[in-house]
Every structure is written in structure tokens, then in C-alpha cells.
Amino acid sequence: MTARHGAQVLAIYRLGIDEGQATFETTVPTWEHFEAAKLPAHSHVAVDAGGDRDGDRVLGWVAAAAVSDRCAYAGVVEHSVYVHPAARGRGVGSALLAALIASTEAAGIWTIQSGVFPENTASLALHARAGFRMIGTRERIGRHHGVWRDVVLIERRSPVIS
Ligand SMILES: CC(C)(COP(=O)(O)OP(=O)(O)OC[C@H]1O[C@@H](n2cnc3c(N)ncnc32)[C@H](O)[C@@H]1OP(=O)(O)O)[C@@H](O)C(=O)NCCC(=O)NCCS
């Protein structure tokens, strides 16, 4: 993922936000804010290589951020994954998670974590398939459009890093 994908990445993010089951966020950040919060080596896009004249069409993205600056958590990241509604159901999300798992394991990162609304069954199924386990549910942890929402914590502990 580079700045040239920025507009498409944020447009896909906005579509996911507007569906109301992906995140507590209600607005899309600027590209500068988005990029500054992410680890570039662990932020990937899936592109339709037969894209239009302006360049590759972005089908989806995955991006990871560090969770802590404490040494013990140096190998722990938190991620987000978003696929364009028109590109869902054909393996793009799985491919993005595979790319994230490969890049993080190659960098010695041992745990990928995230929080998912329990109503987001597509995300829970996608992550279960990619080897994430459910840690538990945080009850009414935050308000989303004025409604208290639960969040399921999920994580994947790499089997190859010991
Ligand atoms: C969740 C999301 C990323 C899945 O992306 P995707 O490209 O459609 O997923 P894939 O096609 O790779 O599906 C992989 C597996 O996930 C599961 N899955 C995907 N969509 C599903 C759905 N709507 N219902 C149930 N399971 C689903 C299936 O097990 C699927 O494997 P299968 O097709 O072999 O059965 C996509 O729905 C999305 O962008 N949602 C909005 C943003 C969001 O919620 N992001 C996650 C925030 S935590």
C-alpha cells in the first residue's frame, strides 16, 4: 500500500464504515493521518491487475499498527481489513490476511489481533478461517451512533515464531 492507492483505500474504508458493522469510526481520516498510524511493511492492497488507465483498481486492503511501545509487545500488531463490496466473496479478504500473516511472520511479529463487532459474521468467519481465535467478548465497550456495542477480541498467535 502506497500513497498512490490512498484515495481508493479511503473510499473502500468509507464504504465499510457506512455499512455500520465494521468499526466504531464514523468518519474517514485524511490519508496523512491514516498512513501515519500504520506500519508500511504490513499494509497491503489487493489490486485488479487489469485495472483502468489511471492504474490498478484496488479491491481491498489490510493494514496493521503497533499496539504498544513496551518491549514485551514488540511483536504484537492490530489490523484492519476492508474489501470493496463489489469484490467480496471471492477470496480477496483471505488473500489479504495471508499477505499480512506472511509479512508479519517474516518480520518476527508473533501476534496479530483485532476487535470485531459480534454482528459482523463475515469478518468472524473470515478470521476463523485464517487461524484467528476468539479471546472473548467485551460487553458494551463503546458507543456507536449512540448505541452501546459489544466487541469480540480475536487474535492469531503465529505457530512459527517461538
Ligand atoms: C469481512 C470482509 C473483509 C470479508 O472479505 P471477503 O473478500 O468477502 O472474504 P473472502 O471472500 O476471502 O471469504 C473468506 C471466508 O470468509 C467467510 N465469509 C466471507 N464473507 C462471509 C459472509 N458474508 N458470511 C459468512 N462468511 C463469510 C467465509 O468462510 C469465506 O470462505 P468461503 O468463501 O470459502 O466460505 C468483507 O466482508 C468486508 O470488507 N466487510 C466490511 C469491512 C469489515 O467488516 N471489515 C472487518 C472489520 S473487523
TrEMBL record:
Q: What is this protein called?
A: N-acetyltransferase family protein
Which intervals hold domain N-acetyltransferase? 1-158
The record's PANTHER family line, in alphabetical order, gives: N-ACETYLTRANSFERASE, UPF0039 PROTEIN C11D3.02C
Keywords, alphabetical: Acyltransferase, Transferase
Could you tell me which species this protein originates from? Streptosporangium amethystogenes subsp. fukuiense
The record's listing under Gene3D superfamilies reads: 3.40.630.30
